[in-house]
Write a structure and sequence with these properties.
By secondary structure, the chain is α+β, with helices and mostly antiparallel strands. The chain has helices at 53-62, 65-71, 79-97, and strands at 13-18, 24-29, 33-40, 45-52. The protein has one domain: Ribosomal protein L28/L24 (Ribosomal Protein L24e, Chain: T, Roll). It is elongated.
């Protein structure tokens, strides 16, 4: 399982451990990924995603999964999240036309 957030694309970063003697050794900074179930109001169903805790706070701040995906860039989203975004857009377009 890759260590990449499905909504923001946030992944591992590299840096150095720096000792008191200023010795530097490589290390990885991993994103704080959580398995969460988010509810799509437009689709009326829940979706399981593996996202960073910072992304979860952003989803909450923007007013839910649908609002987050509407503003999200397609390049940052995983293929599953991009498919979900397309489904939500199609459902919203169908309900607006009716």
């Amino acid at each position: 399982m890759s260590r990449v957030c499905e909504l923001t694309g946030k992944g591992p970063m590299v840096g150095n451990n720096v000792s008191h003697a200023n010795n530097k050794t490589k290390r990885r900074f991993l994103p704080n990924l959580q398995d969460v179930t988010l509810i799509s109001d437009t689709l009326g169903r829940s979706v399981r995603l593996r996202i960073a805790s910072s992304a979860l706070r952003t989803v909450d701040h923007r007013g839910g999964l649908d609002a987050f995906l509407a503003r999200a860039k397609d390049d940052d989203l995983s293929p599953r999240a991009l498919k979900l975004k397309r489904e939500i857009e199609k459902a919203q377009a169908g309900s607006a036309a009716a």
